From TrEMBL, chain A:
The lineage of its organism: Eukaryota, Metazoa, Chordata, Craniata, Vertebrata. The keyword Metal-binding does not apply. GO terms for biological process: tRNA processing; tRNA threonylcarbamoyladenosine metabolic process. Component of the EKC/KEOPS complex composed of at least GON7, TP53RK, TPRKB, OSGEP and LAGE3; the whole complex dimerizes. It comes from Neomonachus schauinslandi. This is L antigen family member 3. Its main location: cytoplasm. It is found in: Cytoplasm; Nucleus.
Automatic annotation (TrEMBL), chain B:
Binds 1 divalent metal cation per subunit. It catalyses: L-threonylcarbamoyladenylate + adenosine(37) in tRNA = N(6)-L-threonylcarbamoyladenosine(37) in tRNA + AMP + H(+). Residues 29-300 form the Gcp-like domain. Pfam families: TsaD. It comes from Neomonachus schauinslandi. This is N(6)-L-threonylcarbamoyladenine synthase. InterPro entries: ATPase_NBD (IPR043129), Gcp-like_dom (IPR000905), KAE1/TsaD (IPR017861), Kae1_archaea_euk (IPR034680), Peptidase_M22_CS (IPR017860). Substrate binds at residues 130-134, 162, 177, 181, 266. Belongs to the KAE1 / TsaD family. GO terms for cellular component: cytoplasm; EKC/KEOPS complex; nucleus.
Length: 127, 335
């Protein structure tokens, strides 16, 4: 009998009965009407990427190629590149997760192109 | 004798060219063509450019019979143009400049057109009509600047033609403008369209709205054919361009006119400009589609002039810019 009841129960929890955690509810200046929906947009999203290169020179070259272009999305996304040894580090900060995702994907495409260029037309000449 | 490599990809054409002392050693190019009824979007265009640019670079070097060490300078389009495509090309230029330890030069796309036009035609100091999908300007050289005498106050003439082609679902292969030109030759009826010259400037967005509207109506009632509309649009917009060019020539007392940019390939435009020039006792210069349409060698040529005059673009200043006025550049290579 118990086995049949278990099989008939839904395989996933029903939203109605499930507790949902919410940030503390603070009424806006106009009272409660405007603030029924929890404010999730005020979080800053951060994404970090570390790209290893065969040498410090190649990491510097990649940095030189990728750093100069203007802020993505007119400042809505902050992007910072640094080089340490033979690793290039990239760090993003953004409020809008969609713009952040687009910026990361675009950067990865450009990075891929830089690496293909280095593979095909490198190695760097001696200085 | 410097040898300059040039990269161009500000719109849907991507080209890599090699120039040495006024000779074009290589100039391969590819065009991103979208289906009829559609235009090219920045992200897709950038993806196209990234996929072919390294093959084009190799092709250019092979065609020129050169190795990387024979190159003295790497020139690329700094702007104006579409952001994502410009970046995709700039990162490759910066990378090879660093790999091969060569100086980098960011070139203004409009100046690339002008310098290639001057080189190929031998025009000494012409009034330039620069007409393409992205730009419409009348330019004349004066005291170290390419001064803009007149321009579009809204969209470029090529943009007007391209967007009209979408309405009629005209093929974008090889380019919408080329196909409009062929259809226009078969047009018989002149449909009256707004004529919008504003002093030294022109406006096309009103004409576009008007013809988009008229097209639906007149084609449905068989009042005219698509060929008639192509013919009417060309006659109207080209007459406007001839007018503002003539006005600038009169101001400057110029005896030479030079047409550059993709729309400059259009033989009807060249014919109308030739008529105006003959009436004034002036000479018309134009190039063929190898150099009218965006290409890498024009960037290399402008780069060659800039390099010899001592210009250099440090990496930190090498960011692309979607807005870049023709008169922002100090033309130190001319008197």
């Amino acid at each position: 009998m118990t086995a049949l009841v278990a099989a008939a129960a839904p395989a996933f929890p029903v939203a109605r009965g499930r507790p949902v955690s919410r940030p503390p509810h603070v009424p806006g200046p106009g009272g409660d009407a405007a603030s029924k929906i929890p404010r999730l947009e005020s979080r800053i999203h951060v994404f970090a990427l570390c790209v290893p290169f065969p040498s410090g020179l190649e990491a510097e070259i990649a940095y030189g190629s990728l750093a100069p272009d203007a802020k993505p999305h007119g400042g809505a996304v902050e992007k910072q590149l640094t080089v340490s040894g033979s690793v290039m580090a990239v760090r993003w900060r953004a409020k809008d997760p969609r713009l952040l995702r687009i910026s990361i994907m675009t950067f990865l495409d450009q990075l891929s192109l830089v690496m293909q260029t280095m593979r095909r037309f490198g190695p760097p000449v001696s200085r | 004798m410097p040898t300059v490599l040039g990269f161009e990809g500000s719109a849907n054409k991507i080209g890599v060219g090699v120039v040495r002392d006024g000779t074009v050693l290589a100039n391969p190019r590819r065009t991103y063509v979208t289906p009829p009824g559609t235009g090219f979007l920045p992200g897709d265009t950038a993806r196209h450019h990234r996929a072919v640019i390294l093959d084009l670079l190799q092709e250019a070097l092979t065609e020129a019979g050169l190795t990387s060490q024979d190159i003295d300078c790497i020139a690329y389009t700094k702007g104006p143009g579409m952001g994502a495509p410009l970046v995709s090309v700039a990162v490759v230029a910066r990378t090879v400049a660093q790999l091969w330890n060569k100086p980098l030069l960011g070139v203004n796309h409009c100046i690339g057109h002008i310098e290639m036009g001057r080189l190929i035609t031998g025009a000494t100091s012409p009034t330039v009509l620069y007409v393409s999908g992205g730009n419409t300007q009348v330019i004349a050289y004066s005291e170290r600047r390419y001064r803009i005498f007149g321009e579009t106050i809204d969209i470029a003439v090529g943009n007007c033609l391209d967007r009209f082609a979408r309405v009629l679902k005209i093929s974008n292969d090889p380019s919408p403008g080329y196909n409009i030109e062929q259809m226009a030759k078969r047009g018989k009826k002149l449909v009256e369209l707004p004529y919008t010259v504003k002093g030294m400037d022109v406006s096309f967005s009103g004409i576009l709205s008007f013809i988009e509207d008229v097209a639906q109506r007149m084609l449905a009632t068989d009042e005219c054919t698509p060929e008639d509309l192509c013919f009417s649009l060309q006659e109207t917009v080209f007459a406007m361009l001839v007018e503002i060019t003539e006005r600038a020539m009169a101001h400057c007392g110029s005896q030479e006119a030079l047409i550059v940019g993709g729309v400059g390939c259009n033989l009807r435009l060249q014919e109308m400009m030739e008529t105006m020039c003959q009436e004034r006792g002036a000479r018309l210069f134009a190039t063929d589609e190898r150099f009218c349409i965006d290409n890498g060698a024009m960037i290399a040529q402008a780069g060659w002039e800039m390099f010899r005059a001592g210009h250099r673009t440090p990496l930190s200043d090498s960011g692309i810019t979607q807005r870049y006025r023709t008169d922002e550049v100090e033309v130190t290579w001319r008197d």
